[in-house]
Write a structure and sequence with these properties.
heterodimer, A: 184 residues, mainly beta, 6-stranded antiparallel β-sheet, 4-stranded mixed β-sheet, 3 helices, 10 strands, globular, B: 111 residues, alpha/beta, 5-stranded mixed β-sheet, 5 helices
């Protein structure tokens, strides 16, 4: 049987919020997806040894990819979001890759899993390749290409000034301010 | 229909440096996540959003151009990033509604 060459399409799109919480006892950051409308910032609560406070929420979405040729579905429930590298650290492997790829007109995007579990179980190379294929299949690759890389390449998240492709502050009554790094 | 045609017909002002592209349809949204989920390659993206995150999002889904409507001021960092990616950012003082009507009259549709 011939193997399918897969033409990926977005499927099962679910809009919601990504919440970023930080433990002010140990500095651990965790993230999760919620379909709830409002997740107030600053709410503190204790859970085991951690003192969690919600530091940011961002409107985002979850999706799976489905092949329009054979129907195969690839779940991406472990994908928290995509980040644009802002070249904030010259010695960062992501920035080094970004510079090298830019010369080939290939734009680098960083895929994040939910923290902290993604630090132990990052998105597989196979899924990153599928994401890369998907974004390239829906664009004119004669102009430029996309490459999706894992966030585990970033040596120190607390120093990362990358820009998440999320909608921050869309539910706020306040005028938008400058975004702050989420992991510092 | 190309970005050049639209700029000439609708007096859209170029903000970034780019090569002209074919325009296949229109998407109207002020949310990056919505555009990432819904936009098609070649869409013209109408928005009042000017944060620089519109640029990587536009690049990721390969829209033909971003049109900032209602005369919203576009920050220089957004323009610089768009020029680096070769993403067309156009500007108009028209409201999104008014521009959408003119694009519809020109035969463009939501993809």
């Amino acid at each position: 049987m011939a193997t399918c060459t897969h033409r990926w399409q977005m499927a099962h799109v679910r809009f919601g919020l990504i919440a970023f919480e930080k433990c002010f006892h140990c500095g651990l950051v965790r993230t999760y997806f919620s379909a709830e409308d409002g997740l107030p910032l600053g709410e503190e609560y204790r859970e085991d040894d951690h003192f969690w406070s919600r530091v940011e929420t961002a409107q985002s979405f979850r999706f799976d990819l489905q092949c329009s040729l054979c129907g195969q579905v690839e779940e991406f429930s472990e994908l928290m979001g995509l980040m644009h590298c802002t070249a904030c650290m010259e010695d960062c492997p992501v920035e080094q890759q970004r510079r090298a790829l830019e010369r080939e007109r290939t734009w680098l995007v960083v895929a994040f899993g939910f923290l902290p579990q993604a630090l132990q179980r990052p998105l597989s190379e196979r899924k990153l390749a599928i994401l890369t294929d998907y974004f390239n299949q829906r664009r004119d690759v004669t102009r430029s290409r996309i490459k999706v890389v894992p966030f585990t390449l970033i040596p120190d998240l607390s120093r990362c000034g990358g820009e998440f492709l999320h909608d921050v502050g869309m539910l706020s009554q306040e005028p938008p301010g400058e975004r702050k790094p989420l992991f510092s | 229909m190309t970005t050049k045609d639209l700029m000439e017909r609708l007096e859209l002002r170029p903000m970034s440096t780019f090569e002209h592209r074919e325009v296949k349809g229109v998407i109207i949204s002020d949310m990056v996540s919505d555009v990432m989920a819904s936009a098609r390659q070649g869409d013209l993206w109408l928005t009042v959003q000017t944060h620089k995150s519109i640029v990587p999002a536009a690049n990721l889904v390969d829209v033909a151009a971003v049109v900032v409507t209602s005369g919203k001021e576009v920050p220089q960092e957004t323009i610089d990033l768009a020029s680096k990616f070769g993403i067309p950012i156009l500007w108009t003082s028209m409201s999104t509604f008014a521009l959408a009507g003119k694009l519809h009259d020109l035969g463009l549709r939501s993809t």
